[in-house]
Amino acid sequence: MQKRRRGRPAGSKKGQHPAISARIPAEALRLLEAAAFRNKRTLSREIAAQLDYAVSRYRKGQKFDELPRRIQGLLDSVALAVRTIEKKTGRPWNEDQYTSQHLARMISGIIADFTLPGEVTIPSRIIEWIKGSQNVAGEAYATCLGEEEARAAVWAIKIAEKPSQGPPATEYETFFLKLKRDLTPRRGR
Questions:
Q1: Is residue 9 in some structural domain?
Q2: Which structural domain range is residue 164 located in?
Q3: For the segment 131-178, what is each residue's pLDDT rounded down to a tens digit?
Q4: Segments in the chain below pLDDT 50
Q5: By three-state DSSP, how is residue 105 classified?
Q6: Is the dihedral of CA 109, 111, 117, 120 positive or negative?
Q7: Do the domain assignments include residue 140?
């Protein structure tokens, strides 16, 4: 058995990512190890994924840069809501009806509180779209837009399938496969 080398990792080989050495707080390491376990990654890959996510939000030309501040703010507030409600109940939102119900109420409350007050009016582009489409809901679509679009999104997520050979063909397929994996309750896997 070879003696394990100590110290900084050796330089990167051709085709590999560079190796670095860094000191981090013990609590951050514990959280990274837990995330790596949850995401079925090595600690090294988890750190790389977390860094990529954090850095890509601010890198020019990346998808997170394209999000308007109001959308990024909404995504961050939803993440805060999930953490808050799950911490209170001790249960994952997608595995517990009580947690799910109260999470939906919290998110709805955040949206309501940050929307300008005023009369609810149907946007003209929705009216025009209804006139020119063969939508099954017809004129009722205008009053059930959220529910109809939720059904479409859920359908797209649920039918996502990984090709039998090789990686998914498009970024779109990869996105929906990731959503399906992340949203499916552990008991339902």
A1: no
A2: 145-184
A3: 877 666 677 888 888 888 888 889 988 888 877 776 656 777 778 888
A4: 60-62, 64, 189
A5: helix
A6: negative
A7: no
